[in-house]
Amino acid sequence: MKSKEIQELVLRLYKDGCGGNEIHKSLRGLISKRTIFYWLKSIKATGTIQLQGPP
Q1: This protein's superkingdom (predicted)?
Q2: Which of 17, 18, 32, 45 could form a cystine bridge with 13, CB 3.0-4.6 A?
Q3: DSSP of 20-42
Q4: DSSP structural state of residue 47
């Protein structure tokens, strides 16, 4: 699964009402809890997962 697909899945699960721990369990540890909670913070602030590339 590519990074963008994982991001879209996390966004969809969040919009369906899942919390961070529930999303982590659904993905079976595919990405870390820390990353999920970082993405959820971005979703809450902007409505999307905004990732920055290297400078």
Answers
A1: Eukaryota
A2: 18
A3: HHHHHHHTTTSS-HHHHHHHHHH
A4: S
Burial class for 22, CB neighbours closer than 10 Å (0-12, 13-18, 19+): middle
Query: Domain extents for the chain?
Result: 3-46
Residue corresponding to tokens 């990353």: 35
For the question of whether the overall pTM of this predicted structure is more than 0.85, the answer is: no
- pLDDT tens-digit profile of 2-52? 888 999 999 999 999 999 999 999 999 899 999 999 999 999 998 888 776
